[in-house]
Amino acid sequence: MRPEPWYRTIAPWVFWPSVAIIGAFVLWAIIWDDAANRAVMALNSDVVGNLGWYYMVLVSLFVVFVVWVGLSRFGDIKLGKDDDKPDFSTASWLAMLFAAGMGIGLVYWGVAEPLTFYDSPRPGVDGGEAEAARAAFSQTFLHWGIHPWAIYVVVGLAIAYAVHRKGRPVSIRWALEPLLGDRVKGRAGDVIDVIALVGTVFGVATSLGFGVMQISAGADFLGWADNPGTALQVALIVGITLLALISVISGLGKGMKWLSNTNMVLFFCLMAFILIAGSTTLLLSDFTENIGNYLQALPSLSFDTGAAYGEDGKAWVSGWTVFYWGWWISWAPFVGIFIARVSKGRTVRQFVGGVLLVPSLLTFFWYSVIGGSAVHQERGEPGSMVGADGVDKDSALFQLLDHFPGGALVAGLTMLLIVLFFVTSSDSGSYVVDMLASGGDPTPPRWSRVFWSVVEGTVAIALLVAAGSDALTTLQTVAIIIALPFSFVMIAMCVATLKSFRAERAAYLAAQRRKTEERLIEEAVAALEEAEKVDKAAELTKGAKAPVGGRTRR
How far is CA 485 from CA 17, 24, 160, 191, 196, in A? Predict the structure, then answer.
């Protein structure tokens, strides 16, 4: 049997508009880079400046929604057929969703973010070094804890139910079928998938570009490269893209699973090394206190727009928290589809608990160990981690490792961890884009996987070579702007999920009532039959004792 021609394996009204939008934007950002940057930044300023309150309320409500769904009577609904078993072990499942969700971000910001918040506290934080450290970790936990994972749960749960329970194709549009009906098959569904596809490509390309800048900065700090420039960064993107190609071609069960498991082993090894070689007892105590401080501050931080501290407060929240909420929402189509794809056979309660709680707790421990070590190092030796210009975010992790024994070896393993995390993000992103562009095919053709992997790498290289970090910042900002329309899609997903679960619950209760009625009828019939047998037996007994000819028959 001859394979289908390539043009029959795509969803044309998703594939071609996405290619056109990506190509047009890249050309605009390269040829008119200054004008593009100014226009995008102005639009982003309007969105973030005027709608910061919207993002703060929305993401907090997502947390409430997913926790309620997980704890409610809907938690027993299986994301698959009733007899389906999970495709992956719990360890591999958690490793894949964690690596795809934010693994590389934790490595980059593990030292940089809490150290930055400690060095330059947000407006309103007073009380000296101890208070600054406490507030730094509470804020960091907010940005990387249950809030971003709740965003992923909203998308992932809706898609997992549609795909695994209802047998729909793997794409965003089908999560809205309970609301849109057959319209998801038309242009409305195409627009939703195009937004998701373009946002995913921009997000992955941005991460590739900024990631190789961090790797090259680390190589420069460690003396492995002399003044690394664009040539090294391009070579790194090419290498990461090639590794991602090999992984994405091999599929979920081989390359991507193996890479995710390797990532987690290296991740734990680095964390264990810092914990054991550092102030173990102090760091464990910090972790305990940080959890308590975070839980105590969670309600107020979740809705804090910074308005109480004037323009400085609002600018700080917009530049950090609202930025993060937009960034996580822009990644939600990619991560949501991916974790939905690997979550077949889980119940809703397992899905919510696994996706929301396990990665959050691991993230809190990571920041307490890595970030806590950096803050303690700076408090004990001022200037050792923070320079005159503040925290060097690209090399902050390597600065910390320089204070530990075996720094060169550990730094080498850390570089490998960073590269593998980028490969995992790239291949999982390519896999999701492939499914969207192929009309929701869970096993898209290999040519499509290769095409989108190359597109992501090419976009990052083109922008990096043409205009450097400014163009990458423009691309990142566009991804965050895309989050605004997609946030409305996420609201619709919550409504659609609730509608589906209620229908599922009603069908379950109706089936239970039918079973109960059938059982009661069977019991009644059995009782009647038993009574009839008793009556017949009594009649026979009575007939046997009746007198014949004046005597009793014996």
Answer: 17, 20, 22, 11, 10
CB distance 197 to 187 below 8 Å? no
* 28-84 pLDDT tens trace: 888 887 888 788 888 878 777 788 899 999 999 999 999 999 999 999 999 998 888
Percent of the residues in the chain that have a pLDDT greater than 90, as a whole number? 38
What is the spatial distance between Cα 322 and Cα 45, in angstroms, rounded to a whole number?
11
The reported pLDDT for the residue numbered 554 is 42
One-letter identity of residue 277 = A
- CA dist 432 and 201 (Å) reads 10
Question: HSE-up of 328 (CA within 13 Å, CB side)?
Answer: 29
Q: Helices 358-366 & 280-302, crossing angle to 10 degrees? A: 120
> Within 13 A of 22's CA, how many CA atoms are on the CB side?
29
pLDDT band at 258 (very low <50, low <70, confident <90, very high): confident
Distance CA 519, CA 502 (A): 25
Q: Which residues pair with 171 in a beta bridge?
A: none
When pLDDT is averaged across residues 474-478 and rounded to a whole number, the result is 78
- Distances in Å between the Cα of 136 and the Cα atoms of 121, 392, 408, 450, 457 are 7, 17, 29, 42, 34
The whole-number average pLDDT for the span 444-467 is: 82
**For residue range 490-530, what is the model confidence (pLDDT) as tens digits?**
999 999 999 999 998 888 888 888 888 888 888 888 888 88
Measured in whole angstroms, how far is the alpha carbon of residue 433 from the centre of its chain? 15
For residue 462, pLDDT over 90 is answered with no
Q: Taking the CA atoms of 444, 450, 455 and 457 in sequence, report the sign of the dihedral they define.
A: positive
Rounded to whole angstroms, what are the CA distances from 328 to 157, 186, 202, 265? 16, 28, 13, 25
Least Cα distance to 432 among 418, 414, 452 occurs for 452
Residue type present at position 150:
A
Exposed / middle / buried, residue 488 (Cβ in 10 Å: 0-12, 13-18, 19+): exposed
Strand, coil or helix: 551: strand
Q: Are 139 and 364 in contact (CB under 8 A)?
A: no
Cα–Cα separations (whole angstroms), residue 261 to 90, 94, 265: 12, 9, 6
pLDDT number for residue 72:
92
Within 222-256, residue ranges assigned H as helices are 230-250
